[in-house]
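Researcher: Quick sanity check before group meeting.
Model: Go ahead. Protein one:
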Amino acid sequence: MALGCNGGTFSAGGDAGGDAGGDVGDAGGVQDSTTSLHDAKASDASDASDATPDVAIVSIGAPDSGITFTVTPGAEVTVATYAQRKALGFRFGFVDGVLGALRVDAGTYDFFGSGDTWDDAATCPGTPGTQGAYRFGTQTDSITTSFGCSALVADHAGGPPLTDGGVVGYFDRDYVGGGPVMRFSSGGHDGIVMTYHAEFHWGPTCAGGAPCFYGTLGMAASTDHGATFVSLGEIIQPYISRPALIAMGTVENSIGAGPFVLGDANAHPVDPTTADPTTTYMYVFFPDMDPAVTCGASVECLAVARCLLSDVFSAALAGTTPVFKKFYNGGFTEPGASGDPNDAVNSGHYSPVLAVAGFSPTALYDRTINQFLLATGQNDSMAIRASADLTSFPKDTVAVVTDANLEDRYPSLIGDGLDTLVGLDAPYLFFTQVNPPGGPWSGATFKNVPLAITVFP
């Protein structure tokens, strides 16, 4: 099936067309305002002054790429303080996970991300008191609207669960946090697909007071230009089953938020603006969990799964679940999800694509170097790597962004061109900065930093 946009030219991404005391979570879960994820209680903290972050820059190219380049982070830009996000109706977030973006015109964007709203119709008239995926905008340096503060996708119960616990239930029963998005058109029908982080809270609390959860990835679709979305179901499940994880005790799996890029059948770069959906795949990154597989000291390692792009679009229009396959032992052969309604069965095996732990991943195709950028974050820093092969990223970084005495987390790579799935010479790295480290959302500032990419002859 041939899919096209604007008369047959495929276009992915974004062509025009009482303060909470809960802490910023390790894996995306929004907690009750009385719960501390890091056992830290703090009052509102003032925003750290904008500055150029401490960086480590390495001039390298991906293996066999034949080019040498640098990635140089610029000065930080404050996008939204806690007070500004609160005025738009948000208790937690944005963004509690990975940001998505669609270019609206030459200077404005629709952003998509995870948040939890105040139970107050005056500040959030749409869906007060609801955790979910939200749309907001409209500038890369200023968020001034939440478009009525309505959750595009919420947990399966439609709001906060009555109780945590149990083993049986929907994969997205207790938490939904969307973000990564892409526009498409097929057979005269326009749409948007979104990947989202989902949680099933099974009872006790884990480290720092967060609910222990079983994390998976879902996909949702919109056919009304992003005003509303419908869940298509679960697309990615960790190898370990839900009952097996629960049997391990007070543990949880950090599945990420499902960032994706486009690649060919050999996992090499495809420019989203010229991609053929019948031969191009959507590649989704996530930390998988198999106690028998390690990357360094971690049993959660970065994995990738893919689905043919035309199949993703067909499923989105039909309201069905697209089928993803995990990379394992050199091929994409293992099921991304088991299909069991309670995740009681293991999903497919996987092979790590990074030799070290890669939490909170985000990815972007960059046209300047014709490679993929991968950013991962863990508490105090964000590491950036590059590769022309989606099944293998080097341990060496091309840049590391860190701020002394602050906590940078939830990195999100957004393209700097007309299509937000394409980086040029200065893509954006959005992130949440927490002051003090481990503190509450009231001390979190949403920021970005441009990444200057320079290629050497």
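Researcher: Fine. The other one?
Model: Protein two, sequence then structure:
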Amino acid sequence: MRTLITVIFAAAVASPLFAQSNEISILAGSTSVGSSEGIEFDNASAVELAYNRFWTNLISTELSGTRSSHDGSLRFGDQQLIDLGSLDLTTIGATLQFHFINSGSLDVYAGPGIAYVSAGDLKSNDLAAAGITSVDIDTQTSWLVNAGGAFKFGHGVAIGVDGKYVHYEPDSSSAGGDVVALKLDPLTVGLTLKFHF
């Protein structure tokens, strides 16, 4: 991860050497998260706002913020035992993108990055009835991978598809309760509207 941070910083320092441009994008899509030990979370709508700085025609760095909210439950087979409330995820990502095709009307890219992921506490009437005020989920800094493509319409506007996978496996705990490891690993895929300037 330190190597990735160094590469992103080096690209920023070297920026005066290259022709530069900028891009703002808005994503509307879906985020899916993993389940563990009978704890399941539904897929949820996701929104993302991102700023991308192009240092060359082939290399850019993106800063993004993604939000999603997932209904959770403790299940046995197909039977819901306890409603866990909503898992509210916020992901701040920094990605180094390599644009393998970026000419004419097509832009195809992929790259690694780092992510800061936070989750709100789980609260529900079922948890309260079981004597659990809330379930705390750890914040983590981890890695991500990103890939996508866009079709350019001219006048700096493009429409595309973007996907991000974030490695996020936090511990969860309640007051006086056991620590439960979660394997959430959110995957966000959606349509993007991009404005290049």
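Researcher: One line on it for the slide.
Model: The two ends are 30 Å apart (CA to CA).
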